[in-house]
Amino acid sequence: MKEEIIIAGFGGQGVLSMGKILAYSGIMQDQEVSWFPSYGPEMRGGTANVSVILSDERISSPVLNSFDTAIILNQQSLDKFEESVKPGGTLIFDPNGIVKEPSRTDINIYKIEATRLAAEQGQPKIFNMIVLGAFLKAKPIVKIENVKRGLEKSLPERHHHMIPMNIEALELGEKELVTVR
């Protein structure tokens, strides 16, 4: 098994931390892992993306030009990465701020209204965990117990009290994922 993933959106949406939690989850599952962030100097509000590779075999390079899965959180990222999804791959997006939805017919497309769901919960910080839960519903490549262990490793100890809320957000994302095609 090898899964090559790009997570892309605005800085401040939890893009990098979502990738980090996913990477730690893979480590907890004894997988080989690559976590390769990319962001501009503006960070919050600017574009940010992270590529994550989870594999049962050694990873030769963290640099990717095409992806099995793209998790897209803004229009600029959709414009940039939609064509980079391998045929038969998966694209998951939050429609908030998306004016031109994905149009490819040779990939699986899913929608998760994470912005709306996080706002309804009164917890905007759980946005990225809702998205991660949706991804794990579409592609269950790591077990939820390993995501919890990944959260424990990636979150500073002062934030460990938020782990149950993050687990609930993962479950909400799994429940609310919508298949587009």
- How helix-rich are the residues, as a percent range? 25-40%
CATH superfamily name?
Pyruvate-ferredoxin oxidoreductase, PFOR, domain III
Number of domains: 1
Q: Uncertain segments of ≥5 residues (pLDDT<50)? A: none
Note the quaternary state here.
single chain
Report the biggest beta sheet as strand number plus sense, adding barrel if it closes. Answer: 7 strands, mixed
CATH architecture: 3-Layer(aba) Sandwich
Task: Please give the alpha-carbon distance between the first and last residues.
Answer: 24 Å
Mean pLDDT level: 93
* Structure annotation, total helices: 6
Q: In terms of structural class, how would the helical and strand content be classed?
A: alpha/beta
- Count of β-strands: 7
Strand order of the largest sheet: 2-3-1-4-5-6-7
- Return Rg in Å: 15 Å
What is the string of SSEs from the N terminus onward?
Answer: EHEEEHEEHHHHE
Shape: globular
Please indicate the percent range of residues in DSSP E strands (runs of 2 or more). Answer: 25-35%
| CATH class identity | Alpha Beta
Question: In the CATH scheme, what's the topology name?
Answer: Pyruvate-ferredoxin Oxidoreductase, domain 3
